[in-house]
Amino acid sequence: MTLSSVCSLSVHPNPLLLFNLHLPSYTSKTLHENNGMLGLHLMPPTKQAVTLGRKFAGGVKRDPSHFDAENEDGELFHEMTTPFSGLQGSYSMHYAGDGVSVPILNELEAVFLCTKHRVFEVENHELWVVKVNDILFPNKRYDSAPSGGLLYYHRGFHQVGELLLE
């Protein structure tokens, strides 16, 4: 899935990030089953990253019958998806502990390896607070010139711009 926002919550005593998931969510179900272990990817502003962002935002639908039924909130985006299908060679598995491995995309600038700290249910959403256990920078091409990541705004992907003068 593609997250619309990830926020830094704290650095001390533990580095924590915050994001939310709309319910019902197969992603939430999977995260709970995997002890809340995940990799949050910071994608660079490249065509390949945009393609991946779109793929993960919509996923790959597994069951076409989901299109026939309307969910109680009127939304049709709760289908089980398999966004990693068809991506062979585009990711690797990273052992996160407790018998759980998380997929890490090759086309990324950085990945935050996290575990669930707390989850709060608020109406039809879950707020996830995750502890950052490690940050990996597997692509050396971004060492000397960090890109700032990929931004989705106004129905399109954008590159984060230059520093603004104050």
Automatic annotation (TrEMBL):
Name the Gene Ontology molecular function terms of this record: FMN binding; riboflavin reductase (NADPH) activity
Task: Fetch the SMART domains from UniProt.
Answer: Flavin_Reduct (SM00903)
Q: Which InterPro entries does the annotation name?
A: Flavin_Rdtase-like_dom, NADH-dep_flavin_reductase, Split_barrel_FMN-bd
- Keywords (A to Z) from UniProt: Oxidoreductase
According to the entry, every stretch annotated as the Flavin reductase like domain falls at 1-159
Q: State the name under which the record lists this protein.
A: Flavin reductase like domain-containing protein
Its source organism is: Metschnikowia pulcherrima
